Each structure stands twice: as structure tokens, then as C-alpha cells.
């Protein structure tokens, strides 16, 4: 029996953790062993067979200061997880994302003499490299998904396994551009511009009006364009049509087709987030737009000195894709960048080339299997070599 305590505090972390646990369950079964997983997570981990004792996803927040609203609940959850460590004494703790919380839990693991593996660890390459040193001192094994993550944690003295990014195995598309256009009922000669205004209503309210103003102007000046708006899961069409009702240009709303839309699009106008990395894997150029609360922006820009917010730019170490943030996130600026790309095809070709370089840095695929293998080894069910 392999007992693992899992700690995933957000929806994305829950999904990534569940994929690894599902793979691990198959591997332990093949070895004739049982797997018991318990701890903190949500729907995906529960479906993967984990015993969910704490589900913190309802208090997930965006931004630094915003998180303080739920500070008391976070500490309550941390106290419960520390109690579980002592009561159940798992062979291994699987920490997934949720950096501030899991950094404290990693310390508790070290104090109890329990091994821990951190998948999607704190972004110490962006700010506060001291967090990498802390995890190294705690003896936490880092399952690195990004090259700069691997490098900063090794430099800090941590044990690191570079597993690569799991999105490489998930971002797959069937069909070519023309077949996708046919499914979207768009003529072959039309160029698709994909619109991804985010998955949260606050993001959409802040970004979609400016995106639509830019799209309308593009439609007026370029007669071969078709715009496709991606509806995120949980966002109803009615919410989006409240924004689109006043516009009269070739615009469709689709859902559950994000990767196919990215593949068929000439380029995207997208909110910062996972979409930027998914588009990079498909080597689709995109204009990154975002507006956050003033407090979050000021902390990121001036205290933590974050230079870029788009993952492709962060991985490349330079701005290979335009970022229009805060006051720069205006329709006229979005239009100007899109117009330049439409008028000079060579710029799009160059952006695609740079995105291929970013994709190569993400590893060769198989991140979920590699992470499951690491958990097997750290859990004592498989030798080191």
C-alpha cells in the first residue's frame, strides 16, 4: 500500500494532480500494489479516486492582496493538513501549485520527516528566489515543468527532475485549417481571428469591450476576416451576447473548441493565462491583453519586478509577442498590432518561428508519466535506477 497525501488548492492544480494520480494508480496496480490518496483538492481529484477532505477551490482568488480576504480560512486548512500529516503518516506528500500554502506544508513535511514532491512549484525564477532555497532546505523534490524552473531550483541546491510541461500531451488537434473552417461554417478564403477574453466574468468585463471595438475596426478595413469568440466553460452565451449585441460584423461564438480555433486562426487576441501557453504549443501567434486590479499590477511591476506576464515571453526571456496591459489595453492599440500583422505576413511567420523555439524548451512530452514515475520512486515502490 502506498499512502500519498495530495495538496492542490486551485482548479488547474486539481486537474494536473488528478492526471498524475490516475497514471500512478495504473502503475501501482501493475506492480500489484494498492494506492491510497487523500488530502486537499476538488472535483478532478475526487473522480481520480482521491479522498477529498478539504476543497479550497471556492476561495480561489486572483491577485496578491485579494488573497488576504480568505487568510483565516487558508490557515484553518493548513492546520488541518498538518494534523493529517501527523495522524495518517503518509509515505509521500504530493504538492501541486498553490505556492504560498504548499511552501508552508513542505516545511511541515520536513519537520515530520516525510518526503514531498512539488509539481508546479513556486515561480522563484520571476521573484523571490529565496523560496527555491527554502524548498531545497526542506528536501522537497521538484518536478519541474519549465526550463527556468529547473535551473533556478538546481541553482538553489534542490533535487530536481525535469518532467516538462503536461500541456504538450494535451494540446492536440485533429483536422487541418480548411476542415475546421468548414465545421465553423466559415469560407475557406476567410482568415480567422480568434478572440479569447478569459474564463472569469471579471476578466471578460474588463477585456471584451476593447477587443470587440478593435475587431469591429479590423472588420471594416479588412474584408476577408472572420472573428470567432471562444466561450469558456461556465460562461453562458447570454453573458457574452450582452457584449456582442451592439456589433455588426462576422462574429461567431463557439465553445469546447479552443484548440481547433487556435489551429485554424491566423492569430489570437487573448487574455493572459494558460491560453497563451496552449497557443504557443500550437505555434499560433497572439496578442496578449490584460487588466488586473491596481494593487496587483503595482506589486508585480515594482515590488516583484515582473517584466512579462505572458508565459511564451517569460520562457523566451524576451518579448516575442506583444503585451498590452492596464492602460495600454485599449482598442486602438490592439487594432494597431493586429493591422501590422495582417499587412506584413513576415511578422507572423517570424512569431511562429519563435514560438516553435519556446515549444522545444517545454520538453519532449510525457510529463504526467514522468511525474507518476517520480512519485513511485519517492514513495519507495521503484528503485532509482
From TrEMBL:
Catalytic activity from the UniProt record: a lipid X + a UDP-2-N,3-O-bis[(3R)-3-hydroxyacyl]-alpha-D-glucosamine = a lipid A disaccharide + UDP + H(+)
Pfam families cross-referenced by the UniProt entry: LpxB
One of the record's GO cellular component terms: membrane
Presence of the UniProt keyword Glycosyltransferase in the record: yes
Keywords, sorted A to Z: Glycosyltransferase, Lipid A biosynthesis, Lipid biosynthesis, Lipid metabolism, Transferase
SUPFAM superfamilies, per database record: UDP-Glycosyltransferase/glycogen phosphorylase
Function field: Condensation of UDP-2,3-diacylglucosamine and 2,3-diacylglucosamine-1-phosphate to form lipid A disaccharide, a precursor of lipid A, a phosphorylated glycolipid that anchors the lipopolysaccharide to the outer membrane of the cell.
Keyword Glycosyltransferase on entry: yes
Record-listed E.C. numbers: 2.4.1.182
GO BP term, pick one: lipid A biosynthetic process
GO molecular function annotation: lipid-A-disaccharide synthase activity; phospholipid binding
UniProt name for this protein: Lipid-A-disaccharide synthase
InterPro entries: Glyco_trans_19
Amino acid at each position: 500500500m502506498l499512502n500519498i497525501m495530495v495538496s492542490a488548492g486551485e482548479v488547474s492544480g486539481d486537474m494536473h494532480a488528478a492526471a498524475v494520480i490516475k497514471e500512478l494508480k495504473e502503475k501501482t496496480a501493475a506492480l500489484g500494489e494498492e494506492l491510497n490518496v487523500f488530502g486537499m483538492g476538488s472535483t478532478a481529484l475526487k473522480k481520480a479516486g482521491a479522498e477529498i477532505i478539504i476543497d479550497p477551490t471556492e476561495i480561489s482568488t486572483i491577485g496578491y492582496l485579494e488573497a488576504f480576504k480568505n487568510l483565516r480560512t487558508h490557515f484553518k486548512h493548513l492546520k488541518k493538513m498538518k494534523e493529517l500529516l501527523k495522524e495518517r503518516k503518509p509515505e509521500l506528500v504530493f504538492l501541486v501549485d498553490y505556492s504560498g500554502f504548499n511552501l508552508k506544508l513542505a516545511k511541515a513535511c520536513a519537520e515530520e520527516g516525510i518526503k514531498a514532491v512539488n509539481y508546479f512549484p513556486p515561480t522563484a525564477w520571476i521573484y523571490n528566489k529565496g523560496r527555491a532555497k527554502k524548498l531545497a532546505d526542506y528536501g522537497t523534490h521538484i518536478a519541474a515543468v519549465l526550463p527556468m524552473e529547473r535551473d533556478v531550483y538546481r541553482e538553489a541546491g534542490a533535487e530536481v527532475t525535469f518532467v516538462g510541461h503536461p500541456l504538450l500531451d494535451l494540446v492536440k488537434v485533429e483536422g487541418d485549417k480548411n476542415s475546421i473552417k468548414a465545421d465553423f461554417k466559415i469560407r475557406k478564403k476567410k482568415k480567422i481571428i480568434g478572440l479569447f477574453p478569459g474564463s472569469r466574468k471579471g476578466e471578460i468585463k474588463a477585456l471584451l469591450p476593447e477587443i470587440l471595438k478593435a475587431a469591429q475596426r479590423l472588420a471594416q478595413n479588412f474584408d476577408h476576416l472572420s472573428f470567432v469568440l471562444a466561450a469558456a466553460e461556465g460562461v453562458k452565451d447570454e453573458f457574452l451576447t450582452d457584449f456582442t449585441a451592439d456589433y455588426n460584423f462576422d462574429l461567431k461564438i463557439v465553445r469546447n473548441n479552443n484548440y481547433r480555433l487556435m489551429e485554424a486562426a491566423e492569430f489570437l487576441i487573448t487574455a493572459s493565462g494558460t491560453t497563451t501557453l496552449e497557443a504557443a504549443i500550437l505555434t499560433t501567434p497572439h496578442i496578449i491583453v490584460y487588466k488586473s486590479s491596481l494593487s496587483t499590477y503595482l506589486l508585480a511591476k515594482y515590488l516583484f519586478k515582473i517584466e512579462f506576464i505572458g508565459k511564451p515571453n517569460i520562457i523566451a526571456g524576451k518579448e516575442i509577442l506583444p503585451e498590452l496591459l492596464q492602460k495600454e489595453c485599449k482598442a486602438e492599440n490592439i487594432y494597431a498590432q493586429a493591422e501590422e500583422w495582417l499587412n506584413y505576413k513576415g511578422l507572423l511567420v517570424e512569431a511562429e518561428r519563435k514560438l516553435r523555439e519556446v515549444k522545444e524548451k517545454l520538453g519532449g512530452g510525457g510529463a504526467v508519466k514522468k511525474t507518476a514515475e517520480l512519485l513511485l520512486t519517492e514513495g519507495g515502490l521503484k528503485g532509482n535506477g
